[in-house]
Amino acid sequence: MPSILMSTQNTRPILPDSLRFLRSDAPRALTREETEWLLAERILTVVDLREEGERAAGPCPLERDGRFRYLCLPVTGGGRIPASPEEVVHTYLNMVDDQMERILAAIWSARTNVLYFCNAGKDRTGVVSALLLRRLGTDREHIVSDYMRSRENLLPALSAFAAAHPEIDPRVILPRRSYMEEFLDEMDRRDGAEIGFANP
């Protein structure tokens, strides 16, 4: 599914026929029409998963728009690029901590539809999306397919980034089915991995 906003590359709902949870790359250049659409669809809770320096380098205009409830909840360790493919899943698992519980609680309990994002909307946002979908009882293939749509949407941008940064292994920035499958396998093995909230 391509981005539903023209100014972003990876904005999309994680549930079919519902805008309850909308994942995205950072919406740094929203048009007035896009902002009005968010308002009309009651997508009024915004959760920024980036660290302070990332937010300063690429501010989102919604942070200063009083019509939105803007929450800055950075994912633990989320701004670091793994050194090797073997580290990707470990990085994802390290995100699942008390801070992640706060993030999921904020999204889950929001009284409006929610837009949440990191920079590209694939790793930190991917982990949040997987945990939300898992809590909703969504089948595994839907979770993995949702994760892999980021590869489709971001492939040109990620390929360009990899070409500009030859010191980075391109395999660590391109989503792979095995990354999410291994993450879900480990979550299934963890006792008490489900974070219990009332249904939205």
Q: How large is the share of residues in beta strands?
A: 5-15%
The structural class is alpha/beta
**In sequence order, what are the helices and strands, one letter per element?**
EEHEHEHHEHHH
The biggest sheet amounts to: 5 strands, mixed
Anisotropy-based shape: globular
- Provide the helix percentage: 40-55%
Overview in brief:
With 200 residues, the protein is an alpha/beta fold. It is built from seven helices and five strands. It has helices at residues 32-40, 52-57, 85-94, 98-109, 124-135, 140-164, 177-189; strands spanning 12-13, 21-24, 43-48, 69-72, 113-117.
Please give the structural blueprint:
Blueprint: E1 12-13, E2 21-24, H1 32-40, E3 43-48, H2 52-57, E4 69-72, H3 85-94, H4 98-109, E5 113-117, H5 124-135, H6 140-164, H7 177-189
Parallel strand pairs: 2-5, 3-4, 3-5
Antiparallel strand pairs: 1-2
Walk me through the structure.
By secondary structure, the protein is of the alpha/beta class. It has helices at 32-40, 52-57, 85-94, 98-109, 124-135, 140-164, 177-189, and strands at residues 12-13, 21-24, 43-48, 69-72, 113-117. β3 (43-48), α2 and β4 (69-72) form a beta-alpha-beta unit. α3 (85-94) packs across α7 (177-189) and α5 packs antiparallel against α6. The chain is globular and about 40 Å long.
Comma- or semicolon-separated keywords:
single chain; 200 residues; alpha/beta; five-stranded mixed beta sheet; 7 helices; 5 strands; disordered C terminus
